[in-house]
Amino acid sequence: xxxxxxxxxxxxxxxxxxxxxxxxxxxxxxxxxxxxxxxxxxxxxxxxxxxxxxxxxxxxxxxxxxxxxxxxxxxxxxxxxxxxxxxxxxxxxxxxxxxxxxxxxxxxxxxxxxxxxxxxxxxxxxxxxxxxxxxxxxxxxxxxxxxxxxxxxxxxxxxxxxxxxxxxxxxxxxxxxxxxxxxxxxxxxxxxxxxxxxxxxxxxxxxxxxxxxxxxxxxxxxxxxxxxxxxxxxxxxxxxxxxxxxxxxxxxxxxxxxxxxxxxxxxxxxxxxx
Length: 274
Hints:
The chain is of the alpha/beta class. The chain has seven helices and six strands. It has a single domain, classed as ABC-type transport auxiliary lipoprotein component (Rossmann fold, 3-Layer(aba) Sandwich), CATH 3.40.50.10610. The N and C termini lie far apart (97 Å).
């Protein structure tokens, strides 16, 4: 009896120990994910800077179009249509501006039997056909996917009476803006004057360009990635995204000055000026 009673107690003890161990594992299994979740730090999200158009919001969004850029870079490696499409995307990012898709501009040019936008009259006819108030025209002046580097000369021509334009805004020949070597608020003219124009050469070896790329990348990439913001200088497509954004930002700044609008707050001013 004593032996049987001892064996029964031992079995009961083992059963209780097994039950306790099972319950402990169950509790730990439920607690560990909670502890890990509590220890995990959520990354701080930083929204990218926003470019705001200076136009009267009460009149609705301004409608721009983009004429295919001329490739005057001296290399056939530059895909003018792809870069033009990036310019459309950059314009679409501006708060208060919508942009006609590039394929619609190309279709309209084909219907008008207009191989290129070469004169102010061409620019205004294309804008009118598309129902756009303004049209971006210009050229690619430099292109090197290995540095990388990209030169862009772009002007905004506005239809008469649109976007509160004043003075002669009939347009500008896309070849005219290629003569500019520096950014200037007084664009050159060729049979017409653009509302705003800018000419930039973005070279990834330039420290100021690198600083602007880093500022642009803020809020547009995952911080923990290996390349971080530098992925914008490791890919020509991403570098072009930055460059077209910066060109459009500069045109918006010119438009703000033309209309006498106050400067935006730093949060809405885009990348750092230079």
